[in-house]
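Good morning C.,

I know you're traveling, so I'll keep this short. The sequence:
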Amino acid sequence: NDPKVRDEKAWKRSLAVARRAFYSGKSADPTGGATFYHAHYVRPKWAKQMRVVAEIGGHVFYVPVRA
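The tokens, ready to paste straight into the viewer:
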């Protein structure tokens, strides 16, 4: 069940944008390499053992602290 393209012009533009992003190789990771995250209103126990690398909108992003 392939989804039907309803707007051919928008579909082609989205493909062009995706190709540029994929092939440019210049997209920086806005999370700083985070492997864990949570919303601001959550206080997970594991976060105490992590290092904050980014805050984006209502989310906090972490990487494990190296021993």
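Safe travels,
E.
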